[in-house]
Amino acid sequence: MSTIVAVLKNNIACIAADSLTSFGDTRQAAEYVTDSDKILPFGEQCYIGIVGSAAHHLVMQNLFAKHADKIDFSDRFSIFESMRQIHPILKEEYFLNSKDDDDDSYESSRVDALIVNRSGIFGLYSLREVDQYSRFWAVGSGAEFALGAMKVAYELFDDAQAVARAGIEAGACFDNSSSLPMTSYSLETG
């Protein structure tokens, strides 16, 4: 899977990700893949980091290009509404297998992501849940390690990118599905 983190501190939002892609037991390190960045830009001043299937990255790149008019990541409700609009597109045009668990209340988009923009940092989850975070958050298989590291780093560093780096480095150190190098993007909020 991956480790993706988002940090908001001193009116700066930072999103960062590891760079390892894996297919089962096969690891594709960044030095062998020309497109190892797990963070996608969307419009001006918006970044989205997606975990899960490696196919999500290319699908979302294509979807952003073809259906940008249906996507607004500016706030919590707009993110929810955008995912509600693009869920049928994911199923019809990209053949998303939305079958996850029979006990789920809703069909899954199978997309978990962090979004950073001028409004702050947001988590987007497979049943189209959207949360806005006030300090930091992490998704992916290395998330637990990243959250612990960022909890400590948040009080130690004034720089959002330094806090994000602590999270990614912890994920890369302890999660076997994450690896350095890290990519990151920062922007001013407000």
Question: How would you describe this protein?
Answer:
The protein has helices at residues 55-66, 76-94, 143-156, 160-174; strands at 4-9, 12-17, 21-23, 26-28, 39-41, 46-51, 112-117, 120-124, 130-133, 136-139, 183-188. By secondary structure, the chain is α+β, with helices and mostly antiparallel strands. A hairpin with a 4-residue loop joins strand 5 (39-41) and strand 6. The N and C termini lie far apart (32 Å).
Quick take:
The protein has about 190 residues and is α+β, with helices and mostly antiparallel strands. About 30% of the residues lie in helices and about 25% in strands.
What is the number of helices?
4
Mean pLDDT, to the nearest integer, reads 93
Biggest sheet, spatial arrangement of strands? 5-6-7-8-9
Helix content: 25-40%
Radius of gyration: 16 Å
- Distance between the amino and carboxyl termini: 32 Å
- Flag low-confidence runs: none
- N-to-C SSE series? EEEEEEHHEEEEHHE
Principal-axis shape: globular
Q: How would you classify the helix and strand content by structural class?
A: alpha+beta
Proportion of residues in extended strands: 25-35%
For the secondary structure, the number of strands is 11
Oligomer: single chain
Q: Mind summarizing the main beta sheet?
A: 5 strands, antiparallel
